[in-house]
Design goal:
The protein is an alpha+beta fold. Helices cover about 25% and strands about 20% of the residues. Helix 1 crosses helix 2.
Length: about 160
């Protein structure tokens, strides 16, 4: 049963979610979205994450504080556990633009200086099976899950059916 505290939007099928998220394929910058659009995008992400065995976040941000807040908010909003601190590769000051990669299954989590212009969050959803669900969306807004209630934990990483 869906948790109404997460969204006023009814759960989307994976096909519906893929259609909604298709507009985010290969964007360099996350677009500005209305509150209603953000709610639909969050619902779509929850649908595709539920079908994934592995979820990987990539965050391009203006500082490590912004990137860490984003990856933690996405993890919480999607019911995924994110390690507390990334390994730091290279010199990262408080205003250094960064890229953070976080694999929620393998627990690979690192931050490194980023010289590119892209900003936002990439979400890669992967299946253990070649014919399974595999997709990447982004760049999504860094603030998409700001202020969202905690989502129930998902079963990513498990091959068991509910």
């Amino acid at each position: 049963m869906p948790n109404p505290s997460h969204s006023a939007i009814a759960p989307l099928s994976v096909l519906e979610a893929q259609k909604v998220l298709a507009i985010f394929n290969c964007l360099d910058q996350a677009p500005d979205l209305s509150a209603a659009q953000q709610s639909i995008i969050r619902s779509a992400l929850r649908s595709v994450v539920a079908e994934s065995d592995c979820v990987i976040f990539g965050v391009c941000a203006d500082s490590i504080a912004i990137a860490l807040t984003a990856v933690q908010a996405y993890g919480t909003g999607l019911g995924l556990e994110v390690p507390p601190e990334p390994d730091q590769r290279g010199s990262i000051g408080p205003t250094t633009p960064v890229y953070i990669k976080c694999n929620t299954n393998s627990r690979l989590f690192y931050a490194e200086p980023y010289e590119g212009d892209s900003r936002g969050v990439l979400v890669a959803c992967q299946s253990q099976l070649a014919e399974g669900f595999n997709a990447m969306y982004g760049h999504l807004p860094i603030s998409l899950f700001d202020g969202e209630p905690i989502a129930p934990a998902t079963s990513t990483g498990s091959t068991e059916s509910p």
